[in-house]
Write a structure and sequence with these properties.
Helices cover 53% and strands 16% of the residues. Helix 3 packs across helix 9 and helix 8 crosses helix 9. It is globular and about 60 Å long.
């Protein structure tokens, strides 16, 4: 199975890219969010991938982090959610948005993805509510982006874009780490994974920049009456 592609970005389409990996070109399907984060054509890039095998077709789907890939695989376990719908949901919400929607039971957020109707959105919420915490708990370890490789003829570096991307990645990693630590702490205190995840997601939605201590403290206030 192909789990990662790293090389030169040769071409961008509407929802696919061509990555040259030492002379071999791979066509990778990506969502709008991933496409927007990719560097210009000619520069080095890397994506984690999931290979879809059908009787008459092989398709590679690309993701900026392992966490996105794990959510993609989990979403496709829902009846009626194929690769196209999963990519649409992740493209609309991102990994953190999917986690928040599922733990809060927010079917309308899932329905915002193109091609996802109310019945399918509700099914995603119902079928993944008990499974989501396990992926959320891995967030800190899986939120890092794929590393690129040095090109034989590297394109001239663009200083501003990598710095901006690095800041975004670092902030996302900190939030994911804080969420994972808060979930672990609450479960160690005896709260169930579902209740803990819902409380943490609620606090994260209200206070996006909250640190781990704040997440735990505010989540405990929500859980205390139970």
């Amino acid at each position: 199975m192909i789990g990662k592609i790293a090389g030169r970005l040769d071409w961008k389409g509407l929802d696919t890219v061509l990555i040259d990996c030492r002379g071999v070109g791979y066509i990778v399907h990506v969502n709008d969010r991933t496409m927007a984060a990719l560097p210009p054509v000619g520069e080095a890039c890397a994506l984690y991938t999931d290979l879809l095998v059908r009787e008459d077709l092989l398709q590679l789907f690309g993701f900026p982090t392992m966490l996105d890939r794990e959510w993609h695989k989990l979403l496709m376990t829902v009846q009626g959610v194929g690769a196209k719908a999963s990519m649409a949901i992740l493209g609309a919400l991102g990994a953190e948005g999917v986690a928040r929607a599922i733990t809060l039971g927010d079917a309308r957020a899932v329905q915002a993805a193109p091609g996802v109707g109310p019945k399918l959105a509700q099914r995603v919420i119902l079928e993944l509510k008990s499974k989501a915490p396990s992926v959320m708990a891995m967030g800190a370890r899986l939120s890092g982006t794929a590393e690129t490789v040095e090109l034989i003829e590297p394109a001239p570096p663009v200083a501003a874009a990598p710095r901006k991307a690095a800041k975004v990645d670092e902030a996302a990693a900190r939030r994911a780490a804080g969420t994972a630590d808060a979930l672990s702490a609450l479960q160690n205190l005896g709260y169930g994974p579902g209740d803990a995840a819902q409380a943490v997601a609620t606090v994260s939605g209200e206070q996006p920049d909250a640190d781990t201590a704040t997440l735990i403290r505010q989540a405990l206030k929500l859980l205390a009456p139970r």
